[in-house]
Amino acid sequence: MRRLLVLTLLPSLLGVAGAAPARADIIERIIAKVNGEIITLTEFQERQIAAAQAARITPDQIGTFLRENNARLLQEAIDEILLVQKAEDAGLGLRPEYVDEVIEGIKKDNKIETEEQFQAALAQEGMSLDDLRANITKSMTQRMIIQRDIEPKISVSEEQMREEYENKKDTEFTRPATVTLQEISIPEDAGGMVLAQEIVKRARAGEDFPSLARTHSAAPTAENGGDLGEISQGDMSPDLEKVAFSLSVGEVSDPIRIGDGYRILKVVARTSESVVPFATAKNQIRSVMMASRFKDAYDAYIAEVREGADIELRVREVPLKLTGPVPEDTLFEGVDPFSMMGTGPAPSGLEPAGPAASSGGYGSPTGEGDEISTTPQAAPQRIVPGPPLDGEISTTPQASPERIAPADPSESPPESE
């Protein structure tokens, strides 16, 4: 069984702001409700950070990246809740002992041998054992409803794969002829034709071509003995290609006039044009076709699920590509983490709305029920620009970060009895 892996946060390009004074309760912003189930601002920020990490976004790109991807990220968060709700309505669930097996697999994959090491790893990730169990359950429950309702609807026949192969045989499944070459470049002002002809004569007499290249060639490849590697037909200049593909293996060309000098080529190896057989290409074709058909089937399925759902958005996305009614408010904290909590400027063309822009809070509520109380903590999560470190992104520990890799689609987790 392919095990789920805990994905660790990467070293940071973003620092964390200094802690604010502790208070009894933290008010958490609700940004969406899905059939009564909420998505909080903190949860959405975790998703933003994970997306920025995956895309390896640099600090100067974060504002643009989030503005371009916020709508998609929020829609994905909504859709994941809908899938879990759909699975629960269908009576699908995981047995507790299966979750235990997955956790044991996580420990094994991460070489965690003691309970103390496991608890330390969870603490480093900013999550509890309950958080981990919940994430496993949610991820696998989504997998189960997809296996039940979507995957049985998609298939690819042998005839369809062969038709796809024939359509792409001349492009994707035809390998061009190649030559593996060595070269020597002689400039006009460093010996020109006279030296080039002398080198050709010596090479044809059996003198080591790489040694001649290291001694006489002005090309950057000289230190590697003139090695140009394998080159496909169509990837060289016409003048050189005509000569290269006319030579036999081991043959050395006459000097070829190129620019202000001469080029000498030696063919080390060559291959003829060939077509990848259908039997060899079959698995690749099936994978690509199944992925395309799965996407179409999933899109149709989730669109139907959305239509029957009560989705209420409490913020306005930029650009807006989401379902549900949208009030006149802005998720300015989510668009650019540099502008959160009053720690930095808002991105160009997007002005924070409400007193949060100057007060350092999460923003004004948009209506009754827009805030919830959470357990006491030192301060809400805050992100500000920090010094570059290894070109990656990190953040402070979150309440329930998404760090569970999806299971192999071919595996069907056991349902609860």
What is the fold's blueprint, element by element?
Blueprint: E1 14-15, E2 26-34, E3 37-40, H1 41-54, H2 62-89, H3 96-109, H4 115-125, H5 129-149, H6 158-168, E4 174-175, E5 178-187, H7 192-204, H8 209-216, E6 227-232, H9 238-244, E7 256-258, E8 261-271, E9 274-275, H10 278-307, E10 311-313, H11 332-335, H12 356-359, E11 371-374, E12 384-385
Antiparallel strand pairs: 1-12, 2-3, 2-10, 2-11, 4-9, 5-6, 5-8, 7-8
Helix pairs in contact: 1-2, 2-5, 3-5, 6-10
Tell me what you see in this structure.
- This protein has 417 residues and is α+β, with helices and mostly antiparallel strands.
- It folds into 2 domains: 14-154 and 283-385, Orthogonal Bundle (Triger factor/SurA peptide-binding fold), CATH 1.10.4030.10; 174-275, Chitinase A, domain 3 (Roll).
- The chain is built from 12 helices and 12 strands.
- Strands 2, 3, 10 and 11 form a 4-stranded antiparallel beta sheet that branches. Strands 6-5-8-7 form a 4-stranded antiparallel beta sheet, with helices on both faces.
- The relative contact order is 0.22.
